[in-house]
Specification:
Rossmann fold, five-stranded parallel beta sheet, globular
Length: 361
């Protein structure tokens, strides 16, 4: 629980929320960070029983397609290649092994905290290895990756590349919501992503699906405040976009960050774990930056791959199932022996349930 947790403010907000929860309501928290924050703070045990929270597709590692994971592992085993990756990806199981297993067998896999760290490795590299940064993430991390590529081009760093597996949030919501519309009453929209794309990006979602959309911060009081706005809209039959995180999110977003994205990347179709191909939901490098695409440099094709038999990560990502529905949860699938990415990632729904399950309702 956050050190800034204000019990008096939270109690007051909960009283207001209780007065609005006049019927059963289901809200989806889209962001994986919200999922973890909700469990860590015990929010599920505090809010009225009439309100149910459903986790959505907001974990970038979890939604990375199985074929992309397999391609990452294949590249790691190539001679003359150094993989630079965020730590969560290292233990995600592929069809055959993982990056952790490839590293144990001799692959050069380095954990970094940003794409700039990967570029720094390329600059300091003295053995002519090609650095391949595994570019996984949503709009939150994409501008930083774009800035890194611009710097690599400016400085003529020829041994730096990325393997683009980037995802855009609004198209994914439009892909999964048709199946949820009869069961959902609103969306808790992601704070970090929204700081880049702006609250206005959800206007088509609210309009086309008739669902209230409220951007929330990550403290308990901020999330309860967002639930109050959602419950009020749902009770009044409205479907609008409201911003309950104004200290970080504006209506139009971060124009400089979006310019960086638009300069370096262009939309492309992308495959999402458990969802399939979504039109214009991914990004690929524009022609002027094509030399930084590891897929082209190494001739790597992302091939279709089957997800682990019996694993429910795909349905959990879509909010259709709960980790408790999975026969592997807490038995064969644990943080030590994960079967799917939802148990590996720090923002994964299964990992949150496993760690904080006493707070689940």
């Amino acid at each position: 629980m956050s050190a800034s947790f204000d019990t008096g403010l939270v109690d007051s907000l909960l009283v207001n929320l209780k007065g609005l929860a006049v019927r059963p309501m289901r809200f989806m928290e889209v962001c994986g960070t919200h999922t973890v924050s909700i469990f860590r703070s015990g929010l599920r045990s505090l809010i009225p029983e009439e309100i149910k929270l459903v986790s959505g597709p907001g974990c970038p590692v979890c939604v990375t397609d199985q074929g992309e994971i397999d391609a990452f592992i294949k590249v790691s085993r190539m001679s003359g290649v150094t993989i630079a990756t965020f730590g969560d990806l290292v233990r995600v199981p592929g069809t055959s092994g993982s990056l952790a297993e490839a590293r144990a067998e001799g692959a050069d896999v380095k954990v970094v905290y940003s794409s700039m760290d990967a570029l720094d490795i390329a600059i300091r590299q003295d053995d002519n290895k090609l650095i391949v940064f595994l570019a996984v993430g949503f709009e939150t991390t994409i501008p930083g990756i774009a800035a890194t590529i611009k710097e690599a081009k400016r400085a003529s760093i020829g041994n730096f590349t990325i393997f683009p597996a980037l995802k855009l949030m609004p198209p994914a919501l439009c892909a999964i919501l048709p199946g949820h519309k009869p069961y959902l009453d609103g969306l808790i929209c992601p704070g970090h992503v929204s700081s880049i794309i702006g609250a206005g990006a959800y206007r088509p979602t609210a309009r086309d699906f008739g669902l209230p959309c409220v951007i929330a911060g990550f403290e308990p009081a901020e999330m309860i405040a967002a639930l109050i706005l959602l419950a009020r809209q749902a009770g009044e039959g409205r479907a609008e976009v409201e911003n309950a995180y104004p200290k970080a999110v504006s209506w139009d977003g971060n124009s400089r960050a979006m310019r960086f994205m638009d300069e370096v990347f262009e939309p492309s179709d992308a495959r999402w774990r458990g969802i399939g191909s979504i039109k214009d939901s991914g990004l690929t490098l524009k022609a002027g930056y094509g030399e930084f695409d590891a897929r082209v440099r190494l001739g790597v094709e992302v091939k279709p791959a089957t997800e682990p038999d019996g694993c429910l990560c795909g349905d959990i990502i879509k909010g259709m199932r709960s980790p408790q529905d999975c026969p592997f949860f807490r038995t064969r699938c644990t943080p030590v022996t994960p079967i799917g990415p939802c148990m590996v990632s720090s923002e994964g729904t299964c990992a949150a349930h496993y760690r904080y399950e006493k707070g689940f309702r």
